[in-house]
Amino acid sequence: MWWSPDSTHLAYLRLNETAVPEFHLQYYTASNNSYPDELTIKYPKAGSPNPLVSLHVYSLNSSSTIMVTSNSTTNATIGASQKLIEFEDSDRLITDVVWATETNTHLLFKQTNRIQDIEITSLVTIGSPLNETTIESTRTYKPDDGGWVDSAQTMVYIPNSKATDATVRYLDLIDNGSGYMHLAVLKAQSSASKSPVWLTSGRWEVIPGTVVVDRERQLVHYVSTERSHLERHLYRINLNHSKPISTKTCLTCPDDQEQHAYYGATFSPKYGYYILQYEGPNIPTTVVKKVDNATFETVLQDNAALTSLLEDYELPRTRMVPVKSGGVSMDAMEVLPPDFDVSKKYPVLFHVYGGPGSQLASYRFELSWSTFLASKLGYIVVTVDGRGTGFKGRKYRSGVRGRLGELETIDQINAAKHWASLEYVDPSRIAIWGWSYGGYMASKVIEANSGIFAAGLAVAPVTDWRFYDSIYTERYMLTPEMNPDGYNQSAVNNMTGFENTRYLLVHGTGDDNVHFQNAAVLVDKLTQANIHNYQVQFYTDNNHAIRYHNGNENVYHLLTNFLWESFGGEEYLHVRKELNGHFAGPLTGGH
Q1: Which residues fall within 8 angstroms of residue 56, CB to CB, at 6 or more apart?
Q2: Which of 38, 109, 300, 350 supports an S-S bond with 286, CB 3.0-4.6 Å?
C-alpha cells in the first residue's frame, strides 16, 4: 500500500490467490509429534495460475474506493486523448507504484504481461469525487532484442519548478536504446512531449535501487558501472537537465586508473548525509559523509581488528582475466594460492552461479570457501560470468531467453578448456560447483559430458524449470505451454555425463524456494539410468540457505571432503589434522 503525500488517499494492491495451487512442505524435527508437521504454501509454479492482481485507490474523505486496473471491470474513466492499453487479469503483473504529486492528484504505476516482455506505464488522475478518476497509458516498452523487461521500483516523482505547470514529471531508469539502463526525466501525460530527457548515457549502467533524488538540492545520487562493470562508484548529477552533463561528479573514483574499488551508499532521510561503504577489493570500511561538505568524514567501522587478524594468515591473491567463448569476451576471476608457482600443476575448481542478470566476478572483498580452498588446500578457484549474467548490457544477457542452461553451459565448458590448456593447471583435476542456479549450472555442465570435469558439486539446484516459481521462470523461459521444447532441453534429462563424472547432490528437505522435488526427480532419473557414480546428501528441514541444526558447517565439510576425494589430494589429510576436524570460521553459501 502507498499513502498519498497528504495522507488523504491510499493506493493498494489486491491479490486474489484463490486459483493458485498449494505446495506442501513436511517438517520432521520441528516437534515431538509422531506425524511430521506440514506447511502449506500458495506457490505458483511455471504455467500454473498466478494471483490475480488489481490496483485500487481509497479516499479517506469520501470513504469510497475505485479500481484502476482490470480491462473488464475498471470503474475509472479512460483518458480521452488515448485508448487505455491493459492486460487481461490473468496476464498482469504490477511492478511499480508511486504517487506523482505533492497532494493526491496523480498516481503512476507500471504493469507487465505475465512473461514480462511488454511494460506499460499508466497515469491515474484522481478525481473529486473519486468516480471521476481517469487513467491513460503514457509509455509502452517492448525490448526489440527478444529479451525480458528488467523490472524494478525505479520511478521517482519530480515536482515542477513553476506552480502553474500541471505536467506530471518523473525520473526513471529505462533502456537508452542501446541496451543499457540510464536515468531519464519523463513527462507522464500523453499530450506532453514523449522524448525522455537523459541525465546519463553511455555503454554502462546505473544500478537499480541506488538512485536517490534530493529535490531540495536538485541533486541525483546514484551508483553505476561507468568506470568498470566490475566496480561500483557513487556519482552525483544535477537534476536540472538544462545544465550540461559535465556537472556529473564521481565521489569515489580514485585518481589512479589502475586502482579498483567497489562502493555502496545509504542516504539519510533528508539526503544531507550518507553512509559510504567501501566493499573492496581491500578490507571493507564504512564512513559517514556530508553532501554539502566534501571534507566531512566520520568513521563508523574501519575493521582494524579484522585487518590485524588477517596479518597472521597467508591469503590468496585474486586477479581478473578475460576468457572467450564463441567469440564473446567473458570476465573471469581467478583466486590463486598464496605460494602460487607457475611451474607447478594445480587443481582448479570452477565456482558458478550464472543466473540471468547476476554477477559473481567483481572487485568486492570476500572471505569464503574459495579463500579456504586456495590458502589451505592449494587449489585455484575460477569464477566466470558467462552469457546471461548482468551489468554488461542487454545484448550480453538477453540471448539466454527461452533456453536457460544452454549458452551458460557452453561458456563454462569453454572456460574450463582454456584453463585446462594452461601450463600451471592439472587438466585431470578440474571440477565445478554452485548453489541454487549455480547448482543447476554445475548439473548442466556434468550433463553435457564434455570430458573436462572430474567432478560436479550441486547444492539446492533447480533440475527442471517446471518446478520453479512462475514469476522468475517465465521471465526467462516463457510458459511451458508456449515453450515446451525449451523446458525439455533446459531440464537435466540426459544422464550419460553423470556416468563419467563424480557428482554430489545436496538439498534441504524444507527448501521452500527451490523445492526438494528437484533433487528427488533427478535421483529418480539417475536410478532409472543405472548411474552409480554419484552421492546424495539431504539436510533435514533445512531451507535454501541450509543453516538449520548445524547444516551450513556440515555442508562445507561435505563439499571439501568430496572435492578432496575427487582430486585425490593427500595434502588435505594434513589440513584436517591441523584444523582438528573444524574449519577456522563460518563459511556461507552463495545463492
Answers
A1: 11, 12, 13, 14, 65, 66, 67, 68
A2: 300
Beta bridge partners of 181: 175
Low-confidence residues of the chain: pLDDT under 50: 72-74, 79-82, 244-246, 572-573, 576-577, 580-591
What pLDDT score was predicted for residue 388?
A: 95
- Looking only at the bridges linking them, the beta strands covering 285-290 and 293-301 are antiparallel
Q: How far apart are CA 353 and CA 440, in angstroms?
A: 8
Phi, psi torsion values for 183, nearest 5 degrees: -80, 135
Q: Which three cell numbers stand for residue 577?
A: 589434522
4 to each of 8, 126, 211, 299, how far by Cα in Å? 6, 11, 21, 37
pLDDT, position 587: 40
Under 8 Å CB-to-CB from 551, ≥6 apart: which residues? Answer: 508, 539, 542
- Cα 524 to Cα 6, 336, 367, distances in angstroms: 59, 38, 36
Q: Give the DSSP H/E element, type plus range, for residue 527.
A: helix 517-528
Q: Is the dihedral of CA 206, 208, 210, 214 positive or negative?
A: positive
Cell of 568: 585425490
Strands 455-459 and 425-435: parallel
Q: What is the pLDDT of residue 568?
A: 84
Whole-number Å distance between alpha carbons of 519 and 510: 12
Amino acid at 337: P
Short-list 473, 321, 500, CA closest to 401: 473
Which residues are marked as active site? Answer: 436, 511, 544
Question: What pairs with residue 124 in β-bridges?
Answer: 107, 135
Residue 278 falls in which region: left (phi positive, over 0), alpha (psi -120 to 50) or beta:
beta
The single residue listed with the C-alpha cell 572456460 is 415
Q: How much is the pLDDT for 84?
A: 58
Sheet of 106-112, strand order: 77-78, 134-141, 119-125, 106-112, 93-99
Strand partners, 175: 181
Joined together, the cell numbers standing for residue 325 give 567463448
Give the global pTM.
0.90
Sign of CA pseudo-dihedral 486, 489, 490, 491:
positive
For 211, the grid coordinates are 538512485
Task: Output b/e per residue, 210-249; b: 16+ Cβ within 10 A.
Answer: bbbbbeebebbbbbbbbbbbbbbbbbbbbbebeeeeeebe
For the beta carbon of residue 365, count every other beta carbon within 10 angstroms: 16
Given this model, what pLDDT does residue 257 score?
Answer: 82
What are the structural domains of the chain? 1-153 (2.140.10.30), 159-312 (2.140.10.30), 315-579 (3.40.50.1820)
Q: How many helices (H) and strands (E) does the chain have?
A: 11, 31
Block residue for cell numbers 539466454: 400
**pLDDT score at 220:** 94
Q: What is the pLDDT of residue 76?
A: 54
